[in-house]
Amino acid sequence: MENFKNLPIIKKLGFNRIILVCVLILMYFLFSLGSGRMLGSGDIKNALNMVDYLGFLALGVTFVIATGGIDFSIGPVMVCAGLIAGRLLVTFGWPLWLALIMCVVVGAIFGVLNGILVAYMGLPSFISSMASMMLAKGVGSVFTHVQNSNWPASGAENSWYKYLVTYNGFPTGLVFLLVVAIICAILLNKTKMGRYILCIGSNREAVRLSGVDTRKWEALAYVICGTLAGIAAITYVGVITQVQPGLGDEFNNNAIASCVMGGTSMAGGVASIGGTIIGVLIISLLRVGIQAMGFRPDYQYIITGIIVALAVFADIRSSSRKK
Fold it and tell me: What Å distances lie between residue 50 and 80, 88, 177, 230, CA to CA?
């Protein structure tokens, strides 16, 4: 097995990513057998709809987890951005393009807030993100008076934003996600910012003693996370026309599960953008496959919880062996 792992092509592609792709393919056939039919284009479309917005959330939180932190506010921030921008669009008559930009602005503001709380004020990321999560839910509800934000439906006037998710059946949202994922991979693996973020997760004190302003780079990870949550809101409203206040918690769990499953270490210092994307595909296929087999969506939580527990356990074992 070690010889196989050390093959040049395997090392280049990544052994863990290859295993994840095999798991994804195996899941497809298992769900097809379990449901008595091959999962068709409709099932794949439903899975990709979730991938579109969950992928951006997972990409963002990958940067935060790489620092050794966590962000439980990404889902509610995404929903909050969709609520605020939707109300500005429909009630206050903002141009659609400006409302879409507002989605990103709202996400970035929460990212800056989390960065300040964690990096500059020294709050534990768990506590600060929980506070931001409640704040996002409250702001979204107050701004919309606890009413849904209704975005233009497909075929209606001003509905061109839905082309960011799909165009004549073509999954433009997936292409959009992959382009952003490539940019994120370059930022994380090929730039000074990415190296500092990973180093902070590995040994924060050593990085600080070397003269690096760890607070700045740690805060930037949260800003990136919040901005990507705002971009996720754009694809979310492209899929879900009616945005309801108070939602978002489920998306946190799925995004974090995708990261951990994809090889990002909860201890920090190790992150894989490619693995995160494959993890998002697995989580999305899991939901669709369970529904195709006739089970309630509740079973997805059970299976996802087991997968996350196993992934974290494998990460801990791997880290202990390296030591």
Answer: 18, 25, 12, 16
